[in-house]
Amino acid sequence: MADYSIHVLEYARTRNYPKAALVYGAFEEVRVTLPYSYILLRGRGHVALVDVGYSHKDHGKYLAEKYGIENWRPPRTVLSECGIAPEDVDTVFITHAHFDHFGNVEDFPNATFYIQREEIERWSWVLSLPDRMRWMTASLDPASILHAAELSAVGRLKWVDGCWEDVIPGVDLHLARDSHTYGSMWVAVRNDGAKVSQDVWVLAGDLVVQFDNIERDGSLIDVETMYNPGAQTVGSYTNIIIAMAAMMKLVGHEARRIIPVHEARLGERFPSRISREDLRISEICLADGAVSAVKS
Amino acid sequence: MPDASAARHDPHPGDAIARYLAATGPVYGALTRLVSQVSLLLLLSDDRRLSYTGAAAARTLAQETETALAALPVPAAVGRHHWMLSQAMDRLSQVLKRLRRGRMDAAAFARLIRLVRSAHELLRLAALPEAGLSLADLRRACCSCVR
Fold first, then answer.
1. So what's the pLDDT on residue A241?
2. pLDDT, tens digit, for every residue of B103-124?
3. Confidence of residue B140 (pLDDT cuts 50, 70, 90)
4. Residue A195, exposed/middle/buried by CB under 10 A (0-12, 13-18, 19+)?
5. Count of domains in chain B?
6. How far apart are CA B26 and CA A161, in angstroms?
């Protein structure tokens, strides 16, 4: 029995990205393609997204020209591959406030957004610090907090304080304080609906950006695999590893159940297809009775 | 942005504009930070459970930014650009002043949101990323690794 269908939807990508920025210490390794994605979750009467991508309107041209982000497509185009329109989305879980995860709020007019209170509070504190400390605000779009205020004004912003069980049926939210960001959140889907579930999927946000973060070759220390956090964090690598351990415990140490959204190799592990817009759709699992979005 | 007819009267318009842009960078950066801080104060006024002691910091930043904006060397060719920044500053100052007066009804709150949104729009229109005037500072963001 599975309650939810889960799809990872690529909405843009950049090439030639240094692996060392994704896996701390991988200084000698090749450059890779980095997809930008959000995750669609459908079931139990809900259409939910984990993160919303960034708005091409505000920064897209600049990003494309300066940083080589290519093939950006709007949510209407990306979601249509699964037969969904942005207006259908009723719930959005924001894993953290970086521009590529929380930058496109306006495209989802009917959704209620969930974000960790600490994420917004601490970013705002950072913004009040002197210019010398500006490094701490990297990847933050000031519009994100404006969006949060706008959502709050119309009752569409829900603060999350730490963990929240059954925010929608079978879906739990978890806080990883002072990790990738100040209040990063990860999402656990108990897909059999059981309290002690045998079918958990973890949607990790940027706490796990690639398979290698959780399944790094551990032969150097005589273990099969080891945890190896990404290199980009304003918090603590220790806290990221502790969050990874919590995720792994929840999925019974079955690493494939932890889904990274910046992983270009999802298609090697899950059924997937490339859309007409040259973007990958990966089908993590299907709800009972649901039709595949990747197989004809 | 640069007004062509005005530029014709400046013997070295390129130099003047370059000086203006160099001096404007920190002011533009402060304005973008103010958008975030003022937005947070709005959130605070809507949800008292949020803990934030940044109101004084936001007011100080606003005063400093207003002073710096007024002191910018503004050649005629970029008068419109400077005007947009000044308008954004004015809107953010209006919101800060209103917030100091305390609680407000939904209509007043919505008006303040519109003012911040309008300031943000002005900054978006005045953005010149190639000159370092960008709403989000992504130079140290993940995507900057591809350069």
1. 96
2. 788 888 899 999 999 999 999 9
3. low
4. exposed
5. 1
6. 35
Contact B143 A14 (CB under 8 A): yes
Distance CA B24, CA B60 (A): 18
Say if domain A4-285 classifies as CATH 3.60.15.10: yes
Separation of alpha carbons B102 and A59, rounded Å: 35
Give me the pLDDT at residue B9, please. Answer: 52
For CA atoms B89, B43, A88, A2, the dihedral sign is positive
Residue found under tokens 């842009």: B21
Distance CA B42, CA B109 (A): 8
Residue B39 lies in a domain: yes
Average pLDDT, chain B: 82
Low-confidence stretches of chain A (pLDDT < 70) are: 58-63, 65
**Cβ–Cβ below 8 Å for A142 and B54:** no
pLDDT computed for residue A161 by the predictor? 94
Which H or E run includes A78?
helix A75-80
Measured between CA atoms, how close is B58 to chain A, in angstroms?
7
Structural domain boundaries, residue B38: 11-146
Nearest CA in chain B to A68: B146
